[in-house]
Amino acid sequence: MAKILIAYFSMTGQTWAGGDIVDLEKGFTNIAAEYIQQAVGGDLFHIEQVRQYAKDHFAMIDEAKKELQENARPALKKFCDDLDDYDTVFLGYPNWWGSLPMPVLTFVEHYDWTGKRIIPFVTSGGSGFGRSLQVLEKSAKGADIDKSGLAVLGVQVEKNKAEIQRWAKEKI
Ligand SMILES: Cc1cc2nc3c(=O)[nH]c(=O)nc-3n(C[C@H](O)[C@H](O)[C@H](O)COP(=O)(O)O)c2cc1C
Question: Do 63 and 56 contact (CB within 8 A), yes or no?
């Protein structure tokens, strides 16, 4: 039986949700990660950067853009110490500026992925994975990356619970 980790990056607080700014207690990708865990078991790991992004949504998206342009690797609060124990890693993140949040790269580049499967899932405002899978391929050294990952609209994540769980079960 594969030992499963569900590692995800997700924001709380202000977000753009289909025309309005709403305040989320739990981010869309976080919700999807929990659905996956309910479906296939495994452990959750929250990828969190040390420096908090601005609370204001528009200031925050500018900060994220700057990190992308600078190819930054923001420091993380912690790493998953026992990654060696897992052979299958669902990796979830939001689409940011057509790619992925830079803290996800800090996480990915920390490990040697040889012998491990990464199964990506993304939530977005409509652009799905964007170019993030190509970025992941370069960054996750040695990983077997599943290219048929799951893309869900952030605002529709709850509506898609059954679909997310069906997809996750198929992967195991
Ligand atoms: C900094 C930033 C950049 C974003 N860029 C895109 C984008 O390029 N394309 C897109 O479809 N959605 C984009 N979004 C929307 C998010 O992908 C979407 O709201 C996602 O579901 C948020 O996930 P979370 O609640 O788990 O953080 C962006 C959101 C943020 C905060």
Answer: no
Cα 127 from Cα 37, distance rounded (Å): 25
By most ligand atoms within 8 Å of CB, the mutation choice from 15, 48, 65 for ligand 1 is 15
Residues of the chain with pLDDT under 50: none
Give the C-alpha separation, 36 to 89, whole Å: 11
Q: Which of 40, 46, 100 is nearest to 73 (CA)?
A: 100
User: What is the domain class of 4-171 according to CATH?
Assistant: alpha beta
Mutate to test the pocket of ligand 1, among 95, 99, 122, 152 (most ligand atoms within 8 A of CB): 95
Cα–Cα distance measured from residue 22 to residue 40, given in angstroms and rounded to the nearest whole number: 30
Position 22 scores a pLDDT of 87
Question: Which two three-digit tokens encode residue 132?
Answer: 């993030």
Which atom of ligand 1 has the smallest separation from the CA of 126?
Answer: 11
Give the number of other CB atoms < 10 A from CB of residue 18.
11
Residues touching ligand 1 (Cβ under 6 Å) are 10-11, 15, 24, 27-30, 61, 64, 94-98, 123-127, 154
Residue located nearest, by CA, to atom 1 of ligand 1: 61
